[in-house]
Amino acid sequence: MAKKGLGKFILGAGIGAGLGLLFAPKAGSETRKELKVKIDDLVSKAKELDMNDVTTQVEEKISEIKKDLNEEEKDLLEAFEWACIQTIGIYSEEAKRNRELRNEMIRRLRKEMNNNE
Fold this sequence. Notes:
This protein has about 120 residues and is mainly α. The chain has helices at about 5-25, 30-50, 50-115.
């Protein structure tokens, strides 16, 4: 029965065993025997892994990643919407000022025309 983190444990054990063998002051034939035993042990532990458990763990991790990406996508979309609203607001304010200026100019021109009559 595989538990979460078992794969990491096996990988860590394999790396640790390999490094231990490399740095151990032993004869080459003895080191090779120990290395074969360690590799056989690692292979048997890997065979004990239940593929359904591994598949489930991988699917769960993929779901977590998708969820994180969806949340980041939402944040990005919200930021884009905010920027659009701000831009529209700026243009709306500018358009309002332009209308006010235009109306003021028309009012002054009419007043000037009335004064000239």
